[in-house]
UniProtKB/TrEMBL annotation:
EC number assigned by the record: 1.14.19.-
Keywords: Membrane, Oxidoreductase, Transmembrane, Transmembrane helix
Protein name (Swiss-Prot/TrEMBL): Fatty acid desaturase family protein
EC top class, as a word: oxidoreductase
Membrane spanning residue stretches: 22-45, 51-69, 183-199
Domain Fatty acid desaturase: start-end pairs: 48-287
The keyword Nuclease is annotated on this UniProt entry: no
MF annotations from Gene Ontology: oxidoreductase activity
InterPro entries: FA_desaturase_dom, Fatty_acid_desaturase
A Pfam family it matches: FA_desaturase
CDD domains cross-referenced by the UniProt entry: Rhizobitoxine-FADS-like
Amino acid sequence: MTPGKAYLDPSDIRPLAARSDVAGALLILHCWGVIGGAIALFAIWPNPLTALLAVLLIGSRQLGLAILMHEAAHNALFKTRALNEFVGTWLCGWPIMADLAAYRHYHLTHHRFTQTDNDPDLVLSQNFPTMRASLKRKFIRDLTGQTGIKQLRSQIMMFIRLAGDDDAIEAAKSDAAQAFKSNTIYTAFPVFFGIALVISLIGDWWWGIAFWIVPYLTWFQFVLRVRNIAEHGATEMSEDPLRNVRTTYAGPLAKTFVAPYWVNYHLEHHMVMHVPCWRLPRLHDALVKRGLGDRMNVASSYRAALAEAGWR
């Protein structure tokens, strides 16, 4: 479960794995601050360009919330376990209709069986490399909201089927995936749509739709797919932790709109999964200093990572 121990000494890992409540709080404040700042930018200078910029920034920070929930799933967002659970659930997970507990169970299984037949994320990577036309169709569905609407519709239909039926709810909870859906129905839905309502109350009636729901249905879905492809698409089907996952170098624009909070250092995360995201660059440097640079699966950019997956 900690492949990095085969390449690094405990004395190298220990300081990198130290958590911080202050750092966790700053990450949360930054993520929600960018969302608020994007809306404020449009409020001050209302025009199509600032509206588009707000959608892109908010969609990227919705991915940021998913990344910070992922940190909490590894108990790495805060040093204090209770803060990991509360913030990871209420300020990261529910706002994007994700369940921390269900995600943790699913995700740790992914770490245990990365790029093997038992990997629950294999469905996200096993069809790569693929044709450029196939990737183009997927990206168009994401950016036009088709992917997000399909996902949201399935969740709403689950709500209709379960609403008021205690027996059905209990049956759903017997399966981890359905437990996620039933929890999402009764807790995450009010949080997600409540945020949209608050944004509308701050501005005009349509602001919540434009600056919360639209980013979620479009840019968030797109960058989530790009992230998934970059991390494991067209990597080795093996147990080699240096080859079955990919780190992608990201410049300022990519960090802003596609890969916030050091999510691009995915190989390093798999090496030592409880290292906080803000220390992953240091873990990367430690691995390179150990002479592993030439063996590590690293893409020079997200464009290069997508090219390996078929976007040529």
